[in-house]
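In the previous lecture we treated proteins in isolation. Real proteins rarely work alone, and many bind small molecules. This record shows how such a complex is specified: first the sequence, then the SMILES for zinc ion.
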Amino acid sequence: MLSSIIVVSAQEDACSKQKALFKSAFKKPIHSNTYLNLINAYDVYYHALDLAIEADTTFISGNVLTAFTVNQQLDTFAFELHQDLMIDSIKGSNQQALGFYRISDEVFVKLNQTIPALGKTQVQIFYHGTPPTGASAAIGNGFSNGVSANYGKRVTWSLSQPYAAKEWWPCKQALTDKIDSVDIHVTTAQNNKVGSNGLLKQIVQLPNNKNRYEWKTNYPIDFYLISVSVGNYFENIDYAKPKGLKDSILILNYLYNEQAYIDNKKTLGECKDILSLFSEYFGMYPFYKEKYGHTMAPFSGGMEHQTMSTMGIISYDIMVHELAHQWFGDYITCSSWSDLWLNEGFASYIELLAYEKFYPQYYYNKLLGKMNRAKQTSGSVYVLDTASVERLFNSNLTYNKGGMVLHMLRWTLGDSLFFASLKSYVNVYGNKTASTTDFKNVCEQTSGKNLGSFFQEWIMGSGFPSYTINWNCTNKDLHLNVFQSNVQSAGSLFSIDLPLRIYFANGDSIDLRIPGAALASNYSKIPLIDSVIGIQFNYNRQILANGIVKRDSFLTAIETINQLPDIELYPNPSNGKLTVQINMQLPVLIRVFNMTGKLMFEHLQNQSTELLELPAEEGLYMIEIGNEHGRMIQKIIRTFSN
Ligand SMILES: [Zn+2]
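The predicted 3D structure, ligand included, written as tokens:
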């Protein structure tokens, strides 16, 4: 659905926009088994990129050194580099030239000696060329050049997620192999600045009016988070001072020019407060020894490059979103693209946490917006088909519904256990990668609650519940009968607790949590202190659900609702005609539900014996019969009739 993606505005889904726009041209790389076995046989611990890049062209030249430990005896080193890029030479640890061959984007290098298991070695790849264009990668191109519409500045920038790092540097594109440290040196014209990861160690002046920017990061980093942007930038510096840190944290912004700074001054100035807030919520900003910052590039949205997000525009939502990714996405990276919601759902929800704290007047509308979009989804939040980047970066499903799962986890655990769980998750998986199961396990260990159904229903399952809540009040007893159906997939129901606000005749109200049950029909009786005059479902939009609340004067204090001897239904199974024999005060209201809880029809029975016509479709139906004197529910099997 290309059109539905294109109408998403940049304010709404932050970094998904650019990621989704170009999805149609994408093809997931298909690797040979030989290649996969070879890249699984080593672990990268260090890269040194030494590249020449200018702001007016994507032409790139230089070399990348890869140092690695082998897991098993290895005599061939494999990596990826797009076939449009020319390899000039490959050198081994002793500077000796190594032989290599290429099959499509896979490159195989014959090492000059067999490396024993747990041995270390390095390979240096010299290359040059113009990276491919035509949006053949997942997100446009891995390496792009363009001019900003508003400020007229030309920039060359990288955006590798999820599979496009190979379009500009030789790499191993495996999420679970974080690189321990990286040097990124970029030589460019003196009027340019180069934004990248980590700390700027020095700028070395070179002949021919060139400078070499020497960046280094000592934090583990995933391959797709290594980035560069080259342009004639205006530098703006700020500092964050989160609680519990002696030194302040550098916030370095590379903007198009001074006017761009003036235009975005207010928003950029808020970054330090958000960074401090998130440090309180999730643990200290993970890369505090280096920096945080933004570098501009002419694309829509933003990209959470580690320690320096690349931004199409500076908007509050995108700024918050990419900053949230520094914890969830960068410090903890999803261990497979199937678990992408651990990056994007988190960043999407955390946007709301900034609103809740700093702009509470907008919080509720922002939440409603995300909820409404989360309802426009089909399929599971967990990505079954990672070959489809359209599915991966589906903003309603991965971003908005993923975000709402986190919102509902907060309701399910309560604020204190929710935030404690997020902190534990950061503690355990920081600098590593994590799966949905890893996250679930941390939440269970922190909270002591079993969250198996929660994650099964909301991450692996699809749709969301729709509730019809019938209530009545007799002698200060609240009677509730909750009928549930799944808006999308028949038969699978949700066990999340229901939030109800109860209004009393005396003007007071209380908030109740009705224990969830994955049942099509669920009756409960709750003794209260006063007569109830009204009920509000989902009063703070705690859960993703539709709901109808109705007073039902037939709903009374019959606790064992399935055993009312005064009513007989037969035959069961029925071939369509069901005899209803009532030996109690008439009339009674009969309601017929299918097994997803959908009301099929109602009928008021005035005679003691009547014949009821069941719906045409075969299957199981629930027949609810009752009035103020009693009520029962019975399941009837409807068989084929002829
Ligand atoms: Zn994002």
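Summary for your notes: Residues 395-413 form the longest helix (19 residues). The pocket of zinc ion is lined by residues 14-15, 304, 321, 325, 344, 347 (CB under 6 Å).
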